[in-house]
Amino acid sequence: xxxxxxxxxATPTVLTASASNVKLVNGAQAANVFWIVxxxxxxxxxxxxxxxxxxxxxxxxxxxxxx
Length: 67
Known about the structure:
Blueprint: E1 7-15, E2 21-22, E3 33-42, E4 48-49, E5 52-58, E6 61-64
């Protein structure tokens, strides 16, 4: 994608509280945001996390969960 900026955050785990909302700012688009998770992603009930979650399935493979 020409002119697109990609943001990523690498962390062992992603955990959101119930009814929380992780908002994108400054024109960021969910399609260009990647949360790279080493072991687990736990999203609370009714929480909103924008972007793509890449969760580790094996030491070198990541699975796209969606956005």
